[in-house]
Amino acid sequence: MNATPWRAAALLSALILLSACVTINVYFPTVAAERAADRIIEDVWGPEAQPRGNPSEEGEPQSGLPAPEAQQPVAMRVLNVMVPPARAQADLDIETPRIRELTRQMRDRHTQLRPYYESGAIGLTNDGLITIRDQGAIPLAERNTLRNLVEQDNRDRNALYREIAEANNRPDWEGDIRQTFTERWRTRAPSGWYYQDSRGNWRQK
Fold it and tell me: In sequence order, what DSSP letters do the residues of 142-171 get, joined into one string?
């Protein structure tokens, strides 16, 4: 009696049982997050935002992406065929009242911050925030005001990343959303503005 079919059937049954125990990964929707970030950046910065381009100017890998198939274990490749990883395809929800309010506050504040971006007094950090990078470029009488504006803007930025994650029922995505915004703020920044690269070094666009 040929036992090969029985062995194949047993192996298939074992794989089915194993796949039932595997947690299906929902990968972070990078493209949808980039679209969401671009919409908010255009709203906050207005027409001065640079046209949409490639999200990474340094060629760094996007967070949340699955490993290339060739780098995955054989068992994982088999399971991916049997149980395809779920991927969120729809756009992220950025239309909640809280997100709209945070965006409006940042847009209103930007009219006061713009001259300091242009002078190089403030710049975009590598964690999705802004900071004072050249205090010498700020008139003494304006330093306290600018410091308060920076603190308020960072508070809203932190809240924005958190709210987008929670609005989409994925609070665990907050870090990925922050990283996506970091890249898009940098990419969309007008020429002459300063930003930090991934190592914290200041660069001028």
Answer: GHHHHHHHHHHHHHHHHHHHHHHHHHTT-G
